[in-house]
Design brief:
Elements lengths: L1 H15 L2 H15 L1 E7 L2 E7 L2 H18 L4 H20 L7 H11 L8 H24 L5 H12 L6 H10 L6 H8 L6 H15 L5 H4 L5
Antiparallel strand pairs: 1-2
Helix pairs in contact: 2-3, 2-10, 3-4, 4-6, 6-7, 6-10
Organism: Brassica rapa subsp. trilocularis
Protein name: Glycolipid transfer protein domain-containing protein
């Protein structure tokens, strides 16, 4: 019994080091920390959304690791994600207390009239959200049919979430790199931890999706229509 328990604990440790397992942990932390506080002043009620910046950036870094498994096809998107993470990290490092809440950072820039500037944190967050949209769309396709064509799944997810915002040069580069996407079996294998079956990976992806869907960054998505 003791030996079996040790084996289970060891298997659990191995599972945590996979990108999907780590992403589940980070999103779990973020889901707990993401709260809505209601404050009342006389007859006025306002919602203050708490969206901790650091856990979100940690999750975005894990998105990069997942995208790396797809290969060179994601090079442009990967670079964009990394640059936007760095921009937000620099803001946080300048004052960790003041800039701990992402939504408040965006509201501050909106009040200052700087949210639409190319180098703003709001724009960086907007592109990170689009990357999360792409990741969610791809994972949903995979979990629905683990045997589907990987190249088609990546292309459809890209067309739905990222392509409308990319220029023709980026779109053309993606189209060429799409031919380098690994097949479905290879991609699932590199996502799996030691001893994990495809069914276990599929279960992990479902868990990740269930955490990612409620992470509805309303304040960010509003920028998409502006």
């Amino acid at each position: 019994m003791k030996r079996k328990r040790c084996e289970m604990e060891e298997a659990a440790k191995e599972k945590k080091i996979t990108e999907i397992g780590s992403a589940i942990e980070e999103l779990s932390v973020l889901s707990i920390a993401k709260t809505t506080i209601v404050t009342t002043e006389t007859e006025t009620t306002s919602n203050i959304i708490n969206l901790p910046l650091k856990p979100l950036l940690s999750f975005c870094k894990l998105i990069i690791q997942v995208l790396d498994k797809i290969g060179p096809t994601m090079a442009v998107l990967r670079q964009d994600i990394n640059q936007n993470i760095q921009r937000l990290e620099e803001m946080w490092e300048s004052d960790p207390i003041m800039y701990s809440n992402l939504v408040e950072i965006m509201r501050k820039e909106a009040n200052e009239g700087s949210s639409k500037k190319p180098k703003s944190c709001s724009r960086a967050t907007l592109w990170l959200t689009r990357a999360m949209d792409f990741t969610l769309a791809l994972l949903q396709r995979l979990v629905k049919d683990m045997s589907q064509n990987m190249e088609q799944a990546v292309e459809e997810s890209y067309n739905l979430t990222i392509k409308p915002w990319h220029g023709w040069i980026s779109c053309a580069a993606f189209k060429v790199a799409l031919k380098l996407v690994p097949n479905n079996n290879t991609f699932i294998n590199v996502l799996a931890g030691k001893g994990e079956s495809h069914q276990m990976v599929q279960d992990d992806i479902r868990s990740l999706i269930s955490l990612l869907i409620p992470l509805e960054l309303y304040e960010v998505h509003k920028l998409k229509s502006t």
